[in-house]
Amino acid sequence: MRAANEDNYVVTASVFAVADGMGGHAAGDVASGLAVAGLAQLGTEGTLRPDDVRRHIVRLNGDILAAAARNPEQLGMGTTVTGLCLVDFAGSPHWVVFNVGDSRVYRYAERELVQLTVDHSEVTELVAAGKLSPAEAATDPRRNVVTRALGSPTAPEPDLLVFPPTEGDRFLVCSDGLTGELDDETIAAVLGLADDPRDAAAALVRDAVAAGGRDNVTAVVVDHVPAPTAPADDETAPRKVS
Protein backbone atom coordinates (compact mmCIF):
# COMPACT_ATOMS: atom_id res chain seq x y z
CA MET A 1 0.00 0.00 0.00
CA ARG A 2 3.06 2.30 0.14
CA ALA A 3 4.46 4.00 -2.95
CA ALA A 4 8.03 4.14 -1.56
CA ASN A 5 10.05 1.29 -0.07
CA GLU A 6 12.15 2.25 2.93
CA ASP A 7 13.32 -1.33 3.64
CA ASN A 8 16.76 -2.59 2.66
CA TYR A 9 18.55 -5.89 3.25
CA VAL A 10 22.00 -7.42 2.83
CA VAL A 11 23.08 -11.02 2.30
CA THR A 12 26.76 -11.97 2.25
CA ALA A 13 28.63 -15.17 3.09
CA SER A 14 28.55 -14.29 6.79
CA VAL A 15 26.14 -11.37 7.33
CA PHE A 16 22.35 -11.43 6.92
CA ALA A 17 20.45 -8.30 7.88
CA VAL A 18 17.33 -6.20 7.33
CA ALA A 19 16.92 -2.46 7.95
CA ASP A 20 13.61 -0.60 7.98
CA GLY A 21 13.81 3.14 7.38
CA MET A 22 11.80 5.08 9.89
CA GLY A 23 8.31 5.82 8.63
CA GLY A 24 7.38 9.47 8.81
CA HIS A 25 11.01 10.60 8.86
CA ALA A 26 12.94 12.15 6.00
CA ALA A 27 14.92 9.79 3.77
CA GLY A 28 14.24 6.57 5.64
CA ASP A 29 15.34 4.64 2.56
CA VAL A 30 18.69 6.46 2.67
CA ALA A 31 19.21 5.58 6.33
CA SER A 32 18.37 1.90 5.83
CA GLY A 33 20.60 1.81 2.75
CA LEU A 34 23.53 3.22 4.72
CA ALA A 35 22.94 0.63 7.45
CA VAL A 36 23.01 -2.42 5.19
CA ALA A 37 25.91 -1.07 3.12
CA GLY A 38 27.89 -0.68 6.31
CA LEU A 39 26.99 -4.16 7.53
CA ALA A 40 28.14 -5.65 4.24
CA GLN A 41 31.65 -4.55 5.22
CA LEU A 42 31.63 -6.75 8.32
CA GLY A 43 32.52 -9.86 6.37
CA THR A 44 35.57 -8.16 4.83
CA GLU A 45 37.32 -7.27 8.08
CA GLY A 46 38.88 -10.63 8.89
CA THR A 47 38.03 -12.62 12.00
CA LEU A 48 35.06 -11.08 13.79
CA ARG A 49 34.16 -11.22 17.45
CA PRO A 50 30.85 -10.22 19.04
CA ASP A 51 32.15 -6.88 20.28
CA ASP A 52 33.33 -6.03 16.75
CA VAL A 53 29.69 -6.29 15.65
CA ARG A 54 28.56 -4.03 18.49
CA ARG A 55 31.18 -1.37 17.69
CA HIS A 56 30.35 -1.53 14.00
CA ILE A 57 26.64 -0.88 14.61
CA VAL A 58 27.42 2.02 16.94
CA ARG A 59 29.68 3.45 14.24
CA LEU A 60 26.84 3.16 11.70
CA ASN A 61 24.78 5.48 13.89
CA GLY A 62 27.47 8.13 13.45
CA ASP A 63 27.59 7.55 9.69
CA ILE A 64 23.84 8.21 9.41
CA LEU A 65 24.08 11.38 11.50
CA ALA A 66 27.01 12.61 9.40
CA ALA A 67 25.11 11.97 6.16
CA ALA A 68 22.13 13.92 7.48
CA ALA A 69 24.40 16.82 8.50
CA ARG A 70 25.76 16.97 4.94
CA ASN A 71 22.25 16.88 3.46
CA PRO A 72 19.81 19.02 5.46
CA GLU A 73 16.83 17.52 3.64
CA GLN A 74 17.73 14.20 5.31
CA LEU A 75 17.76 15.52 8.88
CA GLY A 76 15.75 13.25 11.14
CA MET A 77 16.26 10.10 9.08
CA GLY A 78 16.63 6.86 11.01
CA THR A 79 16.36 3.12 10.67
CA THR A 80 16.00 -0.12 12.53
CA VAL A 81 18.57 -2.84 11.88
CA THR A 82 18.57 -6.50 12.79
CA GLY A 83 20.24 -9.68 11.62
CA LEU A 84 22.80 -12.34 12.31
CA CYS A 85 26.48 -12.70 11.62
CA LEU A 86 29.06 -15.47 11.91
CA VAL A 87 31.76 -14.63 14.45
CA ASP A 88 34.56 -16.28 16.38
CA PHE A 89 33.77 -16.82 20.05
CA ALA A 90 36.03 -18.75 22.41
CA GLY A 91 37.92 -20.10 19.41
CA SER A 92 34.96 -21.56 17.50
CA PRO A 93 32.29 -20.31 15.05
CA HIS A 94 29.18 -18.81 16.63
CA TRP A 95 26.17 -16.85 15.49
CA VAL A 96 25.65 -13.38 16.87
CA VAL A 97 22.14 -12.00 16.53
CA PHE A 98 22.01 -8.19 16.72
CA ASN A 99 19.10 -5.81 16.96
CA VAL A 100 18.19 -2.13 17.18
CA GLY A 101 14.49 -1.37 16.74
CA ASP A 102 11.46 -3.51 16.01
CA SER A 103 12.56 -5.60 13.04
CA ARG A 104 13.05 -9.22 14.11
CA VAL A 105 15.13 -12.39 13.93
CA TYR A 106 13.46 -15.77 14.48
CA ARG A 107 14.88 -19.28 14.70
CA TYR A 108 12.82 -22.16 13.33
CA ALA A 109 13.98 -25.59 14.48
CA GLU A 110 12.15 -28.87 15.07
CA ARG A 111 8.93 -27.18 13.91
CA GLU A 112 9.15 -24.56 16.64
CA LEU A 113 9.42 -20.82 15.93
CA VAL A 114 11.25 -18.72 18.54
CA GLN A 115 11.72 -14.95 18.39
CA LEU A 116 15.39 -14.26 19.20
CA THR A 117 15.15 -10.48 19.33
CA VAL A 118 13.20 -8.17 21.62
CA ASP A 119 11.29 -5.32 19.97
CA HIS A 120 12.49 -1.89 21.02
CA SER A 121 9.04 -0.37 20.92
CA GLU A 122 6.69 1.50 23.22
CA VAL A 123 4.07 -1.25 23.22
CA THR A 124 6.65 -3.93 24.09
CA GLU A 125 7.61 -1.90 27.16
CA LEU A 126 3.95 -1.49 28.08
CA VAL A 127 3.37 -5.26 27.77
CA ALA A 128 6.43 -5.93 29.94
CA ALA A 129 5.05 -3.52 32.54
CA GLY A 130 1.69 -5.29 32.51
CA LYS A 131 -0.14 -2.25 31.12
CA LEU A 132 -1.08 -3.90 27.81
CA SER A 133 -1.80 -7.48 26.82
CA PRO A 134 -0.06 -8.90 23.73
CA ALA A 135 -3.43 -8.90 21.94
CA GLU A 136 -3.96 -5.22 22.79
CA ALA A 137 -0.43 -4.36 21.68
CA ALA A 138 -1.11 -5.79 18.22
CA THR A 139 -3.68 -3.09 17.51
CA ASP A 140 -2.54 -0.27 19.79
CA PRO A 141 -1.86 2.99 17.87
CA ARG A 142 1.57 3.20 19.55
CA ARG A 143 2.75 -0.12 18.08
CA ASN A 144 4.91 1.65 15.47
CA VAL A 145 6.70 3.88 17.98
CA VAL A 146 10.25 2.55 18.34
CA THR A 147 12.36 3.36 21.38
CA ARG A 148 15.75 2.56 19.84
CA ALA A 149 16.95 3.28 16.29
CA LEU A 150 20.04 4.20 14.29
CA GLY A 151 20.19 7.91 13.52
CA SER A 152 19.66 8.91 17.16
CA PRO A 153 21.68 11.77 18.68
CA THR A 154 22.95 9.33 21.29
CA ALA A 155 24.13 6.07 19.75
CA PRO A 156 21.77 3.24 20.75
CA GLU A 157 23.21 0.11 22.32
CA PRO A 158 22.42 -2.92 20.14
CA ASP A 159 21.14 -6.12 21.71
CA LEU A 160 23.47 -9.07 21.04
CA LEU A 161 22.77 -12.78 21.42
CA VAL A 162 25.62 -15.27 20.88
CA PHE A 163 25.20 -19.03 20.43
CA PRO A 164 26.85 -21.93 18.55
CA PRO A 165 25.54 -22.93 15.10
CA THR A 166 23.46 -26.08 14.74
CA GLU A 167 22.85 -27.88 11.46
CA GLY A 168 19.19 -27.84 10.54
CA ASP A 169 18.43 -24.43 12.04
CA ARG A 170 16.47 -22.02 9.86
CA PHE A 171 16.49 -18.29 10.59
CA LEU A 172 14.10 -15.55 9.49
CA VAL A 173 15.23 -11.92 9.45
CA CYS A 174 12.35 -9.56 8.69
CA SER A 175 10.93 -6.07 8.92
CA ASP A 176 7.79 -5.35 10.92
CA GLY A 177 5.83 -5.14 7.68
CA LEU A 178 5.82 -8.95 7.81
CA THR A 179 5.05 -9.46 11.48
CA GLY A 180 2.39 -6.76 11.38
CA GLU A 181 0.40 -8.88 8.90
CA LEU A 182 1.22 -12.51 9.80
CA ASP A 183 1.14 -14.09 13.26
CA ASP A 184 3.82 -16.49 14.48
CA GLU A 185 1.71 -19.56 13.76
CA THR A 186 1.30 -18.56 10.11
CA ILE A 187 4.99 -17.72 9.76
CA ALA A 188 5.97 -21.09 11.23
CA ALA A 189 3.65 -22.91 8.83
CA VAL A 190 5.26 -21.24 5.80
CA LEU A 191 8.79 -21.91 7.06
CA GLY A 192 7.87 -25.56 7.63
CA LEU A 193 6.44 -26.10 4.14
CA ALA A 194 9.14 -24.60 1.91
CA ASP A 195 12.35 -26.61 1.48
CA ASP A 196 14.26 -23.86 -0.33
CA PRO A 197 14.90 -20.75 1.83
CA ARG A 198 14.34 -18.49 -1.19
CA ASP A 199 10.90 -20.03 -1.70
CA ALA A 200 10.12 -19.52 1.99
CA ALA A 201 11.10 -15.85 1.87
CA ALA A 202 9.07 -15.25 -1.29
CA ALA A 203 6.02 -16.99 0.18
CA LEU A 204 6.20 -14.94 3.38
CA VAL A 205 6.33 -11.65 1.48
CA ARG A 206 3.53 -12.74 -0.83
CA ASP A 207 1.30 -13.79 2.08
CA ALA A 208 1.95 -10.56 4.01
CA VAL A 209 1.05 -8.45 0.99
CA ALA A 210 -2.10 -10.51 0.46
CA ALA A 211 -3.02 -10.03 4.12
CA GLY A 212 -3.01 -6.25 3.72
CA GLY A 213 0.52 -5.09 2.94
CA ARG A 214 0.12 -1.91 4.96
CA ASP A 215 3.88 -1.51 5.30
CA ASN A 216 6.96 -2.52 3.33
CA VAL A 217 7.65 -6.25 3.72
CA THR A 218 11.16 -7.74 3.67
CA ALA A 219 12.19 -11.29 4.61
CA VAL A 220 15.55 -13.05 4.53
CA VAL A 221 15.59 -16.79 5.28
CA VAL A 222 18.88 -18.48 6.19
CA ASP A 223 19.38 -22.24 6.45
CA HIS A 224 22.31 -23.84 8.27
CA VAL A 225 23.22 -26.80 6.09
CA PRO A 226 26.27 -29.11 6.04
CA ALA A 227 29.13 -27.78 3.94
CA PRO A 228 29.62 -29.80 0.73
CA THR A 229 32.95 -31.61 0.50
CA ALA A 230 34.95 -32.98 -2.42
CA PRO A 231 35.16 -36.76 -2.96
CA ALA A 232 37.74 -38.36 -0.68
CA ASP A 233 39.69 -39.80 -3.62
CA ASP A 234 40.14 -36.43 -5.33
CA GLU A 235 42.55 -34.37 -3.26
CA THR A 236 42.82 -31.70 -5.98
CA ALA A 237 39.11 -30.91 -6.19
CA PRO A 238 38.10 -27.50 -4.82
CA ARG A 239 36.41 -27.51 -1.46
CA LYS A 240 33.63 -25.22 -0.34
CA VAL A 241 32.86 -24.23 3.21
CA SER A 242 29.85 -22.46 4.65
The poorly predicted ranges are 234-242
Give the topology string: H per helix, E per strand: EEHHEEEEHHEEHHHE
How helical, in percent, are the residues? Answer: 25-40%
Query: What is the topology, as strand order, of the major beta sheet?
Result: 1-2-3-4-7
Nearest-angstrom radius of gyration? Answer: 18 Å
Mean pLDDT: 91
The major beta sheet can be summarized as:
5 strands, antiparallel
What general form does the structure show? globular
| Strand proportion | 15-25%
N→C terminal distance: 38 Å
What is the structural class? Answer: alpha+beta
Number of helices: 7
Report the strand count.
9
Describe the protein.
This protein has 242 residues and is of the alpha+beta class. It has helices spanning 28-40, 50-70, 122-128, 134-137, 176-179, 184-193, 197-210; strands at 7-11, 15-20, 81-89, 92-100, 104-109, 112-115, 159-163, 170-174, 219-223. The strands form 2 sheets. Strands 1-2-3-4-7 form a 5-stranded antiparallel sheet, covered by helices on one side. Strands 6-5-8-9 form a 4-stranded antiparallel sheet. The longest helix is centred in the first third of the chain and has 21 residues, at 50-70. The N and C termini lie far apart (38 Å). Residues 234-242 have low confidence and may be disordered.
